[in-house]
Write a structure and sequence with these properties.
heterodimer, A: mainly alpha, 7 helices, globular, B: 306 residues, Immunoglobulin-like, 2 domains, 5 helices, 18 strands, 42% strand, membrane (chain B), transmembrane helix (chain B), transmembrane (chain B)
Chain lengths: 186, 306
């Protein structure tokens, strides 16, 4: 089980960090999703969340291949410059939502494992982080599109604040995976 | 957390994304919209003509060059070491569009003209960097022959901001001013109102104060003594007699809700020692446009057809 969390941790870290050299992401997302997928496969298959997360991660291995060539955090504008494709922002948005669903299922797997182990503290920690993660990401996804049609320092400040919060939520999620790795290594 | 909350959030965020995207698309303009300009320039080529236009903020295409009569011109820049490589800079940011400025070097324009006579134009042919071209109405620009005027009024103090031009003159000879005229027919008359002040005591005081506190103090002084001014309208006769060394102040103010840029001269007509005399007062109009002004300009010029 330790190996499984180890893979998921590195997988999600790879997906989070984007280092673009010219147009290529040198930490490619498909590799990240593959690590997540192989991490999930190593878990016992008796939870419905495991099955859903597994197929979703596998799907994302292929779906995220074009993302190697674009910077997703620039809301598609760079991609438009490189590829001149107007569906690119739609693609980025779809990938972001699929990743959100995947994280939701992974959180549920983690909750399930903590419950089975009877570790109340770990269960509470996972539940709080799940709620915080989903709240930040959903509010961000709902409100960020409004920045297309509003400008001003307040809008910029709001965007920066929520992007920082979303980064914090991602880090909290990664730390939780590391915590699981530690607990289950013994 | 229940899965249905996740799905509800995703549905709302998709709706927000789709709704905002459609609204954003509906606000895009088909191609850059050039604003109105009323420029007078002399053919000595020292001036720069600044053409302001609105462009969608996220469009990759931008204005590459403009054709004015025989001349093809690229945006001029002070640090222009690679001609044609410049992109017009952004002056002001609005919700969906940027106000940009395409600067034309008059020297460059004149050097490419086959006919060196005075000329005017009100349309330019715009070439985008994607190859698209369109014709834009830009108001009106007149290039006049340089001539030396017999100086009767000598400018002593001048100040201008976005909304007004103020100048104080001293008469070099006795003169009687009887009328003013504005260029470009009625077009510039709807843009500016002109006031004159001949209150010698106040003007001398301004002149004296100037050496002490600098220009800002006399501008404030000006506003306080506004009752000394008289409105002078084009096509209306008046009579302002100035003795030699008399002071004369003229204020040209932008009328509200005007969105045109201007650099032109108001002509003061009169007689001096029995001969007709003309004096020029230079006016610069650079309106500060609100989002409402921009929306009005766009709705007049049309948005991108889907």
């Amino acid at each position: 089980m330790r190996e499984s969390f180890h893979k998921m941790f590195w997988g999600f870290l790879l997906i989070l960090i984007e280092i673009h050299i010219v147009a290529l992401d040198i930490l490619p997302d498909p590799a990240g999703y593959y690590l997540v997928f192989s991490g999930i496969v190593m878990l016992k298959k008796d939870s419905p969340a495991v099955a859903k997360a597994k197929y979703l991660a596998l799907g994302l291995v292929f779906l995220s291949i074009p993302a190697v060539f674009i910077q997703q955090n620039s809301m598609g504008s760079t991609a438009e410059k490189v590829f001149d494709l107007s569906f690119w922002p739609i693609y980025t948005q779809v990938i972001a939502i699929l990743k959100l669903i995947l994280v939701f299922y992974v959180f549920n797997i983690l909750l399930d494992i903590a419950r089975r182990k009877g570790d109340q503290q770990l269960c509470a920690s996972a539940r709080h982080r799940l709620i915080a993660y989903m709240a930040v990401m959903l509010i961000l996804n709902i409100t960020l599109p409004f920045t297309m049609n509003f400008i001003g320092t307040l809008v910029t400040a709001y965007t920066v604040l929520f992007l920082l919060l979303s980064l914090l939520a991602e880090i909290m999620f990664l730390l939780l995976l590391r915590k699981y790795r530690k607990i289950f290594s013994s | 957390m229940k899965e249905r909350w996740l799905w509800a959030g995703i549905i709302i965020s998709s709706a927000s994304w789709i709704g905002n995207s459609f609204y954003y698309q509906s606000k895009q303009i088909e191609h850059p919209i050039f604003l109105e300009h009323f420029y007078e320039a002399s053919d000595d080529g020292k001036q720069y003509l600044k053409f302001y236009y609105l462009a969608n903020r996220n469009d990759k295409e931008d204005v590459q060059s403009v054709r004015i009569k025989d001349a093809v011109l690229f945006p001029y820049s002070r640090d222009d070491f690679m001609s044609g490589e410049n992109t017009p800079p952004v002056e002001q940011v609005y919700t969906h569009q940027d106000l940009k400025v395409f600067t034309v070097s008059l020297e460059d324009l004149l050097s490419q003209m086959n006919n060196k006579e005075a000329f005017s134009f009100n349309k330019i042919k715009v070439a985008m960097n994607n190859g698209q071209t369109f014709t834009a109405d830009i108001g009106e620009v007149t290039i006049n022959k340089t001539y030396k005027e017999g100086k009767i009024l000598e400018q002593q103090i001048a100040s201008s901001d976005n909304l007004s031009d103020i100048a104080i003159y001293q008469a070099l000879k006795p003169i009687t001013l009887t009328s003013i005229s504005l260029p470009f027919d009625k077009e510039t008359e709807r843009l500016v109102s002109v006031k004159a002040n001949t209150n010698q005591k106040a003007l001398v005081q301004i002149k004296n104060n100037l050496s002490g506190d600098g220009p800002s103090s006399w501008l404030k002084h000006n506003e306080k003594n506004d009752d000394g001014f008289q409105l002078i309208a084009p096509h209306k006769k008046f009579s302002i007699r100035l003795k030699k060394k008399d002071w004369f102040e003229i204020v040209a103010k932008s009328k509200p809700n005007t969105a045109a840029f201007g650099e032109f001269s108001i002509k003061l007509h009169g007689t001096s020692q029995g001969k007709p005399a003309v004096s020029n007062v230079w006016v610069t109009l650079k309106p500060v446009l609100s989002q409402n002004d921009i929306d009005r300009i766009i709705s007049k010029n049309g948005v991108r057809e889907k």
